[in-house]
Amino acid sequence: MKKSPVTRIVSLAVVFNAVILQVVARGQYPSASGGQWYSPGTATSGNPGNKRGVDDTCERLSYNVNQNNLTILNGDIVFGQYDDFVKQFHILSQPSFVYPNTIDQQHNHHYRRALHPRDTPQLWPDAKIVYKYYSDEVKSKVGPYVLEAIERWHLKSPFLKFEEVNASCDEVPGQLTITSIDCGGCNANLGYSSTKPLYMNLQQSSECKAPGLSHTGCYTDDATHLFGHVVGLNHQTGRVDRDEHQVFNCKNLVDYDPKKPENCHDEECMGWACTFRVDKKKQVCGPYDIESVMQFAHDLFSKPETSTLDDKRDTGEHLPRYNVPFPTSLDSIQVCDLYPSQCTGFCGNGIVDPGEECDTGTNHYTDGCTPACKSYNYKKEHH
């Protein structure tokens, strides 16, 4: 059974016993025989001991630290430097693989007030994403995938603007730097920051020198998903209504410990289980979109021949088997909700703007709205 490419949208800091010869490739984890499963670290926000009446409710999440000392949350979201991460989160456990000279052991027991990682992300001013490549060499490697991903988003959300500036290795606050670091995985920042540099990494196929690391590349579909994060979209699977549309099989996670089933619970999750944690306090906006470009595929972080997410019976919905390549109309509407001042005046944004008779977001004849946003009585014409 072929594993989904979405599984490779992770910070692939993976280590196994020396006898394991197969590495992670397109989400296929090696046999458990002779080696241990990789597990990310676990951290929590908030402060359960707070007595000052401040809402510091803890939220657990999974994290990895790449060779550039960047912390990657929940598989593919860049938080920033690890030194900043430990100032805001309490470390419960470390990843089973740690790059040399990255994680500082002295931080393990420090407890600090944390930011909530699922707060509404900051938005790009005027809906304009300013990006650059780390070098001309990086542009030659991943530029075609980046441009195609941008075009996919622009087709659905034409108000989004993407401005490329000259390639540079400088880390500039408010600019997205696109890199292609070997073994660096596929990951990007969530939203915008005017005070911190922003990152996207699209590793390409290469022979990684560190043992057990992926040599699978990240391509157009991966970049499309990551640009969803960049504009401000989080994973669909973290929505509180997730379980109404799919079934989470925690026992199929690669790092599941049958001796500790409590590690699957949202409040006590550890490792990859925290990536599937739902945010029960955050209100949802709009219907759940199982076909979203931000939806996890069925086999994310699963053991071979298993799935972590299954179709829910009697819903008529089906989980994607691979990366979703194109943003959906509901993705476009979510982006429109993030940037309402810019999202005006075009057909297909789900808003009936001046001059339009209708706008369903999908604009198929069968939903009563034409691609030109004109009303169409489908039943009358066909009966």
From TrEMBL:
InterPro entries assigned to the protein according to its UniProt record, in alphabetical order: MetalloPept_cat_dom_sf (IPR024079), Myxo_disulph_rpt (IPR011936), Peptidase_M12A (IPR001506), Peptidase_Metallo (IPR006026)
Biased composition (Polar residues): 31-48
Keywords: Disulfide bond, Repeat, Signal
GO MF annotations in UniProt: metalloendopeptidase activity; zinc ion binding
Coiled coil: none
One BP annotation, GO: proteolysis
Peptidase metallopeptidase domain residues: 120-272
Annotated region (Disordered), positions in chain: 31-52
NCBIfam families hit by this protein: myxo_disulf_rpt
Protein name, UniProt field: Peptidase metallopeptidase domain-containing protein
